[in-house]
């Protein structure tokens, strides 16, 4: 009665048996339809016989719900999906939002026709309903029917959670069967032992009784008992084998559930094949891949490329089954007949390449070469598909064809293949280099240069391949002709440098200059280096000028470098220009041109900040100590203070001065003079001492009162420096200061 009542409630009827006008039953205690289904399943499962007597077809109802069908009141008939609302597992909330009955009916039809929508409607109840249905048959004693329900459930569910519920229940069922059979077997053994004890008592009554028993067939009876025991043990072994087989099938069953969730999962198909191979079932692995090629759509494929399925199946045919003909047949169906439609041409190109490699492994050289040529010809299968149209531009197939032609073809066929690739504009710079290298090896030098020209027509500056092509082109040309075709070589260099970007021009200028030095004119070589100084980027100008100066000194002498030094100083930035000034001054010092060297140092001093370039001032200091006098030394100090004062108003960012360097604040002229005076140890009072334009006050033991005092000291210094030998002897500054103190 409880099952019938719950069935009426689930069938959207009132408890009195009258239809509620299409309205769903609402529990006054707030019981949901989910809970009602669980109660209904518990009642029917706990009392299967009574439910049948009450007219409740639990099996038919559960199957109808699981398959999305509608059941009339009482479970008397199962109708086609979509006539009535029928059973619903969860509460229907559509009416709360004002949905009409027609909308609900339409939604129900769509749900029943769509398995994914049906699973969504069942929710987490699917696995529970399957397990309750199987338990219903177990309690009814239909073990084989229960097994069929479990197997049907494992083939129907699409959720891993439901799979775990059903599989665990299935395993518990098999374990229960084994335990029951073991108990029955133990009971039979106990009964047999009691019978033997009884027989022993009867044997003691006499030999006549024993002879009579033998005549009556006691031996046959014992044989029948032994046969029964053997049958019981066989049932136990069969049950154990079933349980072990079920446990071993778990990875495959779980994989099938995942494939039902998404049949286009390439990775799961490959995993399924690997599971079959681990079990030693190679034929089943091949059958799984054949099924995958019929199921997986290249547009929806995930977790792998569809071509992986074909390549793995070929490997199984060739290496596992040793059936090369089956592999060829598959590749012919895929590549020639296009039985599987790939979305991307690269997947189809992999299949063609695999076919060629298969024939190479079988040492069918001519067939492999023919397949490689046909693959890039574009005359295969359905020309309208995107994948087939893209084969003629597949670099994988062109690389394979070039290798095959160079290894198995003739010189002419190889040249035709490369020419066709250049004509169709599918060649890369590496293909052009390989083509030119192949012609060079075959002693076709001019044709190799023509290949370079065609490649440069496809890849012009600023393409990265143009630099590589020009470099090899010029190297091969100079290696072939050396200095025999100088005008042609110069024309090639000029063409290259005319369009070459500045960041790549240095290596070509160096190559051009080296060629002119070895096979041309010195004047042209120096002209090339001069052009290089103005063409290279700013970061490389310093190195270019140093090279130009070195070459000029080498061929024209030291004095010829003076205008180059001057041009470099004017063209470079402050840092490189100051270093050039040091080199210029060093050169002039070597020529005994001390005044010119000092002039260069004075000019370069305005470019060298003492805070950032102390090496420059150290070099000038050493120069004055070695070649100067007191006046020139003090002039150097005066210039240094002037430059330091000028740069004191400059702010440098952290990138120039280094991260974490303190920021230099902007100083006024008065503040800069006070800072310099403080560093020199001299007190300067700008109000009492007049400022003289162009003069920086130095460190003195006595204070300078006026401009006349300055002029008298300067005259005395000139007399001392003009005396004979004065320039050669060491000057003692302390003595001069003592003499100054003695003057009135």
**Global mean pLDDT:** 77
**For the report, how would you describe the main beta sheet?**
2 strands, antiparallel
Structural class: mainly alpha
The stretches of 5 or more residues where confidence is low (pLDDT under 50) are 13-23, 69-101, 103-113, 211-225, 653-669, 684-707, 723-744
Number of contiguous helices: 37
Write up what this structure looks like.
There is one protein chain. Helix content is 69%, strand content 1%. It has helices spanning 2-10, 33-46, 48-53, 58-66, 101-113, 115-122, 125-139, 143-154, 160-203, 207-216, 218-248, 250-261, 266-278, 282-295, 306-320, 324-336, 345-361, 365-375, 386-389, 395-408, 411-423, 429-441, 445-458, 464-481, 486-499, 505-519, 522-535, 538-556, 562-571, 574-590, 594-605, 614-627, 630-647, 654-657, 669-680, 707-722, 733-742, and strands at 70-71, 78-79. A hairpin with a 6-residue loop joins strand 1 (70-71) and strand 2 (78-79). It contains 37 helices and 2 strands. Residues 13-23, 69-101, 103-113, 211-225, 653-669, 684-707 and 723-744 have low confidence and may be disordered. The protein has 744 residues and is an all-alpha fold. Strands 1-2 form a two-stranded antiparallel ribbon.
